[in-house]
Each structure stands twice: as C-alpha cells, then as structure tokens.
Amino acid sequence: MAVTRPAPRPAPGPAALPPAPPPAHNSGSGGGNRRAGTRNSASPSGSAGAGGGRGSRGGGGAAVPGAGRALAHRYAALPPPLEVALAALRLEALLGDPRDAANPYGLPALTTRTAPTPRITGREADGGGADSGGAGGGGGEERAGLLAAAGLGRIPAADQLVRALRPVLRRDVALGHACAAAAGPCPVPAALRGPVALLAVTATLLRQAARIVDGRCGSEPALRQWRPVLAAAFADLLACESLTGVALRRPAARPVPGGLLPAVAGYVVPTVVADVLARLELVLTECGHGPAGLEGRMLAKLARDLPAAGVDAAGVTAWQTYLVRALPTLARSPRTPYLPHPAAPPALFRLADPHPAPAPAPGTGPGTDRQDPQSQNGQNGQNGQTSDGPDGYDGQGPDGPDGHDGPDGEGDGVVLAGLVRGAARPVDGAGDTVRAALAAVARRLLSEHRALRRVCRTAGRDGSEDPAVRALADRQALLWLAAAVLGVQEAADDGRGLFLGGPHWTLLALSGITERLGVPLPGPAADPREQVWAELADRVRHGVDCDIYATRLLW
User: Fold this and answer.
1) What is the end-to-end Cα distance of the chain in Å, rounded?
2) pLDDT value, residue 66
3) Buried (b) or exposed (e) across 265-292, using 16+ Cβ within 10 A?
4) DSSP-based helix, strand, coil % in the chain, nearest 5
5) pLDDT > 70 in the chain, percent
6) Contacts from 519-524 at CB under 8 Å and sequence distance 24+?
7) pTM recorded for the entire structure
8) 18: which of 314, 452, 513, 538 lies 20 to 30 Å off by Cα?
9) Mean pLDDT within 523-532
C-alpha cells in the first residue's frame, strides 16, 4: 500500500543536526518545529509531547550543553543525549525509507521476503563481503557494520541504546531483536530485547491504523467508532513502554543474577500487546486492509517472529513461572522512604535523565560469559549450566532471598513507590476531574496490592502449577505495570506541558489495567479517550512516533 509522506508543518524546520561520519543529514525530514504550547487537556496537539520537543527549556536531562541540548529537544519531547539522537538518525538514514518497495530494509520487502536479505549497498555501512542472512538470522557481519556505521558502539547505557536502535526495532521484530543483542558495549538485557522490539513494531502498526482512520473518518463517519479503540491501544503501549523504560534503567551491576523488573516486563508486555494487536487487526480489517495488504503482512510476519524473540506463549509462560516462584518478593510493601510526596520522584522513573551504566561486577565485563548479570545469559558459574528461570533467573527475587535493594537504592522495590505516590498525590483545583479520578484509581490499586500481600507471602514456592497461584502472579505483575505508569507520569509532569506528564493517557492505561484485574473503577470518571486520540492523530499527521519519548521520525 502506497503511503504518502506526512506533509511538513508550516513552521520552520529545526536546524540541521551536526553531521557525524559516515552519513550526514538533516533531522528536519520528519517535519518542522511546532509552535510552543502549554498544557491543554482538550487539545493534546498543542502539547510539547506531540511536537517532539519544541521549547528550549531544560528539564529532560539531555547531557549536551548549549546548541546540542536544543537540537536534542527538537528530536524528542524527552530528549536523549545528542550522540544518541545522532546515532538514531544515522541508523534510520542507513536503513532507508521504510515505505520504499525497492528498499531491502523497507516494510514491503521485510514482510514478503523469503530469500536472504541483500547486503546493504550504496551506503556508508561496511557490511563486509558476506551475504546477509534473513532479517532475523544470519547477516552478523552486515548487522555489525550497520551498527558500527551508525555509531551505536559508543552508547554505554541500555535505555539509551534502545532509543538509538528504535529505527530498526520498529521495522522488524526478528531483525531488531538480533541488533539489540549485538549493539553497544552494554547490550540490551536478553529479557527485554523481545519486549522492546515487539513494542516498536506494534507502534508502527498503530501509526498505520491511526493514519487510515484519521484520513478517512471525515468522509466516512462510521470509522469514528475506531478512534476510542486506537486511543486505548496507544495508552496500553505507553504503559508497557513505561515498564520497559524503567526496567532498562535498572542498575545492571547486581550482587546476584536475576531481577523482577525484566521478568515482569517479559510477562506483561507480550500479554498486553497481544490484546493490542488483536484490536489493531480488527480495525485494519474493518477499514479494508486485510491480510493481503502491507499491514496484514506485517501482522503475519510479526506472528512468525514471536517465538524467535521469546515473546510468544511459551516465553510468557516461562516468565509467569518465574514470577510465581518470586511471589513473596513480588508482593512486598513499597519502600517508605519515598512517601513524602513533595520530594522528587525516584530517578528510575525519570526516563529522560542520563543514567550511566555502573561499572560491571567482577567476571561480568566484555569477553566474559556473563556480560549482563541482570538477565542476559543466566549462567551460574558452574560449567555454563543455566539456572531455573528464563535467561538465568534464579528465583531468588531481585536482590537475593531477602529482597533488599542494592547499595544504590534504585533497585526493583522502588517501582512500587509509584503506587504509593500516585495514591497520595494531591489534586490542584476542584475542577480537575481527570486528576482526581487518577488519584482515586491509584488508591484502589494500592488497596488491591495490600490485600494480596499476605496471601502472596506464602504462595508460589510449592504451587507453581496451581492456577490460583498463577493468577496471583498475574495480578501482582499488572500492579507493577500500574506502578511504573504512575511513576513515569509523575516524573514527566514537570510544568512543561508534556503529554506524558498529563493525566489522560495515565487514566486510560490504568483503566485498562483495572479491567484486566477485574477491579471496579471508583465511581464515575471523565472519559479520556478523545484527548488521547487527539494526541495520537496529531503525532501521525506530524511525523512523530507513538513511543513514550515522542520521537520525531525521519521518514
């Protein structure tokens, strides 16, 4: 299906990003800089989140002074360091236009290819002389040359590496999963490679569906019924990205292997995204874009790639089993040092802040078998034997049997502070019904967590096959997802009018979580779906990704 490129905005485009070898290009390809705006819940298109960072105000934490900070702000609403933005743009330019049927890394080719992917030619990437394998396998030399040409080898932190890899992640799950395993001095943890690739490809499908509905609902009013459906899918994706973003920022150097955050993401993200994909397939089919079209082929290709990325039913079941064994730790009480609400949210939730990777523990550096003690290889040091859980999880909880956080104080237990802080958040103004509803839902979810705490203390160790115990693990994982959503929203609510800091997407995401939990919502509340749809449609029109950072697209 031929899709026209989004028209540029009337405002002048951003200044060209400084060229970095090998490719040099202008970051303004996705559209011009948008007008400055303030928080306006009725018009998300006027928010900074949709525009990809219009203002020059600080916040966000881009570790680049002067002009570099301004350029990074033009790249995304939550700007990365400039070198990360440059690497992502170089990678996207090397991959080429995703809608070009002649591009071997375009969506038409990736969704129909049965033969090996041709080696990149006519570009600066040094792919070597070997033929590439398929999108998800083989082609290691080509992938290494592509990633090196983009400059990803200089990005040390896993969360920033995922941002730089987003151009390839959003095209193909298998290819993105392979690149995430090979890029950077600190590769993306194995437990999170599949979820981040799955979220990126699903966001591409969501953009396609939203573009179709937004473009036709003016002349076909019946299609307006799908706008709330797509808004809810958007909120679900933002919720899952909140969890994976926090998990990627979790300190990598731990006293023991394992950790709850990657395990929760490995279970929750494929489960929630499966519902999102089912809704997207329904919308696309009802709009006349069936299996023969590009979107239908993307869905079919995605279904084929799920097992290789570890995000199929078998992978979900394996993570659920691990969470069952970790139930006593999964249900522990939130840490009280973060209860005083005026204090800043924990650094784990501030996704735009630089988060340098700590020094690796002994025996976990490059060239060793355990490059990622968090979740990657899972060897226990005895002849390479793996431990009980997926990818090396040993069932001991995040930081050992006692569940204490490491010395940095930013361990997995901090995430549950999001529930406490969300429930205690004051509401400014009697007329802010959405924020009042959000605080009420947070209190309801916190009560659910406390009600489950006692029964979870004794469950799990001897009843991993008991459906009732597995249901407890399901509920606790969803509560962790809600806690991550509340923490990320609070951290982004810093007065700059970011969509991510607003209450609408958060309320819609928590409504979906409470529905999955079977917990009734506390009283009548405003419906945030129209505001969330307005943000989604505005991003589609102006070439902004559906990710949590509101990243501007090159193509």
Assistant:
1) 16
2) 56
3) bbbbbbbbbbebbebbbebbeebebeee
4) 55, 0, 45
5) 66
6) 519/444, 519/445, 519/448, 520/444, 521/441, 521/444, 522/437, 522/440, 522/441, 522/443, 522/444, 523/437, 523/440
7) 0.78
8) 538
9) 87
